[in-house]
């Protein structure tokens, strides 16, 4: 919804900050582009507990990317992109693009991460 503002917001507002989530929000009141970005940090002390776990986590991120290759291509054509990577405390999931279909991509990536069928 485009609404004239006297002064564009310079920084995002913190909407939620507790043990489960930290949520920031800022509407694009300068260029009015309907884009969004969702960054999910899946914190786990197990990820960096050993070198073996780090390698397994890295392989997992590559397998998720491989499983989503075809789906992600179509999403990219529609102006959406995602990354699954290792962060300093666990896995990071970053999804961005046009906000009308962003929840669809988020659901697909999360489902793939949850239900990934790893074959020998």
UniProtKB/TrEMBL annotation:
**Pfam hit, one:** Peptidase_M16_M
Domain of life assignment: Eukaryota
SUPFAM superfamilies listed in its UniProt record: LuxS/MPP-like metallohydrolase (SSF63411)
- Tell me what gene encodes this: ste23
Q: Which Gene3D superfamilies match?
A: Metalloenzyme, LuxS/M16 peptidase-like
Keywords in alphabetical order? Metal-binding
Q: Does the keyword Phosphoprotein apply?
A: no
Question: Ranges for the Peptidase M16 middle/third domain?
Answer: 2-120
What is the name of the protein in this document? Metallopeptidase
Q: Give the UniProt record's GO annotations in the biological process aspect.
A: peptide catabolic process; proteolysis involved in protein catabolic process
């Amino acid at each position: 919804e485009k609404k004239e503002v006297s002064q564009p917001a310079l920084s995002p507002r913190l909407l939620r900050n507790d043990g489960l989530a930290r949520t920031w929000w800022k509407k694009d009141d300068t260029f009015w582009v309907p884009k969004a970005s969702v960054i999910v940090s899946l914190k786990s002390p197990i990820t960096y507990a050993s070198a073996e776990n780090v390698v397994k986590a890295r392989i997992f991120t590559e397998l998720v990317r491989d499983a989503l290759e075809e789906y992600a291509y179509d999403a990219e054509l529609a102006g959406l992109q995602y990354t699954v990577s290792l962060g300093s405390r666990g896995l990071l999931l970053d999804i961005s693009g046009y906000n009308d279909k962003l929840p669809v991509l988020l659901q697909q990536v999360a489902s793939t991460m949850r239900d990934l069928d790893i074959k020998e």
